[in-house]
Task: structure prediction
Amino acid sequence: MAVIQLFFIVVWMSYLSGTDSLYSAYALCCILAVVCLCDNYVNDRKLRSIPLVCNLTISSLLSFASTLANYPIFQHVRKDVSGGTNTILNLIAVCATFLGGIAMFYQIFLCAYYRFPKAGDTEESLSSGKHPGKVFGTIFGSLSVIYLIYLIFVAYPGSVTSDAMWQIDQTHYGNYSVHHPFWHTMCIKLFMSIGYALFGDVNAAAATYNGVQSLAAAACFAYAVVTLYQYRIPKGIIAAVCAMFAFLPHHITYSGTMWKDVPFGLTMLVVVVAMFRIMRNVGRNRVLNYAIFMIGGIGAAVFRTNGWYALLAAFVMLLLFFRKRCKELLIPWLVVLVVGWIMIDPAMTWLNVKRNNFLEGLSVPMQQVARVITEGCELTEDETQMLSKIMDLERIPEVYWPQCCDPVKEEIRDEDPARLEYLMEHKEDYLKLWIQLGLKHPWVYVEAWVEETKGYWNGGYDYYIYAQYVHDNDYGMYMVEQDNLIHDLVKAYFTITRETVFFQPFQSIGLNIWILSFLCFLNMAWGRKEFLLTMPIVAVVFTLWLTTPVFSEFRYAYSVFTSLPFILLVSLYCRPGEMD
Result:
């Protein structure tokens, strides 16, 4: 049986060698699977009952994801003499690859289930170490120095992206909207106003905001690290996590980038850590744990709209699975949801803030309809007439970009304002049309969805990760050209991390989401409360599968990278004698 599974794992790797994603993610999983298979064979491991169901479920889901994302490979596996695709050979290739993926992920899960969780350091080890306050101060100070050095000597006044410049325009002209989170716009206005009042310079104003954000990032990461320390995670493992927060390029650059995704990712980390502290009684001040949880939760709810929905989804999971065992979380979580909803909904009406237009949430449906048109699928006269009222059917094949919906949305929104207005007035009719086209052309819809979202559920893709620029503006804001040793060394280091395969797993969205999903099902199999920690982040990812405008935007999934190291360690380690 082990030999058969190894054969299918090799088949999986062979067929996916033609992938357009990062092959290193697949190779890493394959190597780990072979090691785990040998270990499982030697120890004669088996699973039964709930753990077996959890293993088969997550293994099937991840194998299906890697197979579906690479559907173009199987469409061209073999050609018959007439030039058509040989359906039988394609089907065999798909099934063999799918079985290989199941075998691979099954072996990894089986090994992890028996190998973990491991016991952390003893109470005596903790009592002989530093006071948690000193640990927090040391980590916070070290990270602050690293992030501020980058901001001052490499990228002053920090990156101000096109999105952020739009928010700055809102603060300048007073014409606010929720296209970008209103409360994040208010934070930009507050700290840039303070910076301008102190220094009288627009660059210094932007640097003030980015400097405050750098300190906030250092504080959030230090909060996670000190919690690991108090939970008695081995110190060598904690040191590795500190190194990740300190030296991975995305954490360094994001600390000084004016993007809404940065505070959202940080507040989601705070939510996860505070949840864990409450569930496992970490620290002596329970009131402080509750207060930090609510502050982080409200921040996550208002810095991105999908943050509120993610917290709502996690709250539902709490009610369904851990209501009795985590009842202490119910009231503070409800407070977060109520206050967050007030701030993102009624408060916007009270403050006369412009709402998003209907089109912004239709990225995936618009891409599906556009692909139907681009593929030349047959449309009835009524369908053609309806679609012609909101888009130019002849231009759609020219502007359609499978991995980004912006060209299609701009065709509807910008070419003729009357189109969007008509769409708003006939939403129900177009919903029916979308369903109708999907029933007629289901595989075209699947292809469109895959191309628009695959970066968030498969391996990883070569796409830009961070921004290092100041967007064109009329305020006199610009990125200063640096000429110093620190700048040159950091730039060289960033170039190495972009071009070296070794760093790809740390920056691969899909791979890290696979790990997060694995931890979710592992904790379910173990019956541990840590299952709940994965739910807010999983819910964020799920919203991307439904509404993302870009197929593999790193910043959209930044909360995965801030939270995963913490979730990973508290899942694989536990205090001595503590196992649900």
Q: What stands out?
A: Residues 8 and 100 are 4 Å apart (CA to CA). The chain has a mean pLDDT of 91. The longest helix spans residues 87-115. The first strand starts at residue 118 and ends at 119.
